[in-house]
Amino acid sequence: MTDPPLSPRPINIQAELAKERNRAAAERTLMAWIRTSLSLISFGFGIDTIVTAIRSLQVVDDLNPVRFSRMLGLAFVALGTYALIMAAIEHRQELQRIQRQTDYLYMPRRSLGLTVAILLIGIGIYAFISILLKAFL
Predict the structure, then answer these.
(1) How far is CA 123 from CA 2, 4, 75, 88, 136, in A?
(2) Count of Cβ atoms closer than 10 Å to residue 92 Cβ
(3) What is the DSSP letter of 101?
(4) What is the pLDDT of residues 102-115, one digit of tens each?
(5) 29: nearest Cα among 114, 113, 104, 105
(6) Rounded-to-integer distance, Cα 78 and Cα 24, Å
(7) Rounded CA separation 119/72 (Å)
(8) Taking a C-beta distance cutoff of 8 angstroms, is the pair 24, 98 a contact?
């Protein structure tokens, strides 16, 4: 009678279940970033569409088209696209860390949420200053 080959390392069911929970959490996080990115892209596209519609109406001849609106729309589209790309990269890296045969260890890294928040602050400051200058000039 032949015994089945021994695995090099016994399976720790608790560790495997913890990895599965971490994988599911990574999936939920990716889905949240997808929703956030689509919202940013849609908002930017909406701003650009509204500005284009106002320009096409030409209700008033002395209506000065707001140039920063198009820039603001593009900034939101770019930020949403950046967030989506970075979320996909982080998700892939997280799955690779979980699937390693060695112990799963916490590795500190830059927060994508903080990066997007800082970029949104920059876009907000740009919009505020542009509107303020337009009001006084």
Answers:
(1) 69, 63, 7, 23, 20
(2) 12
(3) S
(4) 666 667 778 888 88
(5) 113
(6) 28
(7) 12
(8) no
